[in-house]
Amino acid sequence: MQRGVAVVAYDCKALRVLPDCTLDGRYGFIGVSYKEQKLHLKTAGEIKANLPSGAIAASVGAELQQGAALDVELSIVGKQTATVTDGNTTQLRGRCAGATHFVRAVTTGAFTLDTKTTAAVDGKLEVAGVGGSTKGSSDKAWHQKDGDRAACQSATPGATTPPAGCAAPLRLDLVALAAATAPAAASATTREASAGVGSSTSSTAACPIGMVWSAGVCREPRADTAHRCKKDDVQDCRRQCDLGDAGSCSDLGFMHLVGRHVPLDRQRASELFVRACNGRDLHGCNNLGAMLISRDAVPIADVRRAMTLFETVCAEEPTLCTNLAVVHRDGLHSPARPHRATELFSRACLGGDATSCHDLALAYDQGIGVGRDVPRAAEFQGLSCQRGFMQACAAMGTRYLYGTGVARDEAIAVRYFQHACTGNNQLGCGLVGLLTMDGQGGLRRDPQGGRRMMEQACNSGSNDVCAILATALRVKGDEAGARQWFRRACEGGMTAHCTQ
Description:
It is built from 17 helices and twelve strands. It has helices at 44-50, 149-152, 234-243, 246-258, 266-278, 282-292, 300-316, 322-330, 338-351, 354-366, 374-386, 390-402, 410-422, 426-438, 447-459, 463-475, 479-491; strands at 5-10, 15-23, 27-41, 70-82, 92-94, 101-116, 121-127, 130-136, 141-146, 168-176, 212-214, 217-219.
């Protein structure tokens, strides 16, 4: 990890680090509030499901027989996260035979492992290069640890390095390497955004088929034990919420908040977010805070409660700092604090939130809360696009079209606009149409086809495209057409075009 982004060979049964193979990039640390987690894994299936690619149990050489169990105690202080979000096999450096994934992030802290069996076990445990072997019979126990739990307790959310003695790898987040094909349009820029750009931390894990997420681990489902509900399954979410799964309450609350698969009901959503938050679900707390301050004439007590919720979730999960950042940036219910807002957008972006990277780019573009730095803005906007925020992809296309913070390149601009358009961003679609009208960026010239693309994007709700089309038609001498589309932009709320 000191020489680049780590690469591994992983087949769901075993993980092998390839020490002489790397992907270009760096790791940086982002801290969280100190937390402890205790896992009691009762079967070999649960051990494999919960520690399949983690550094704690890179391989377990013996099948634990009936009566065996593994107790894991984790002390978590943060993540080492990579500057890259995707990669393919052509980008690898060194001896990389068998490479399948790269290590996107490493959860760090300290751990202890203990087991006591009532059946024979012959096992080997490897911990990121620290191994221990055991061989014994009935009532034999072994113990393994790395890192100092006491040292970890001094961790703070704003730390840029883990405490001394508290940097043991606990879990790995792996990303599959793409086949040896050209990179996606969204990866047209190769500049790194930061030494600490990270990925978001999910509130759940992807469990193997036949297992469910329950109390922080993957387990075999039981009718009387709550687990995270299936996505968009209303009945399952209700059942699991009633059984006490906080994440299921949060999922059901969000469905009521937006009216997806259930009636739109803000009161019911609020009640469910309260239940979720009381059960320590961070997304539920975050959504509850947002609801508390999204009304007119918000009581000061609700403002304070929302701010407490936002501060708490931000400290524990960096990707959830966005709401707190917006409150400080826009001065909602309190004076604006642009410097604090930029710090929070940065934390959320480095943690993996795509929209926060875009907001951070805007701050650097305008010099709000940070020194103006247009090339730096382009780096963060490119990262936002890589993470799937299509508005940022359209913005990156505009940067390359005009050379704003990057070298001007119409061909790259076209690739960004096309990528945004495939993500249903109408501005991106409209700008592909604009360049098609004149055959720019390597596109075949098609004035009528390009105009139809722009008209469709305008009719789909992009007032910006309406105004851009009107301006293009005026330049080409079509005054009647220009007035028609300026009128559409005006009707859409762009009052500056109402007199044009």
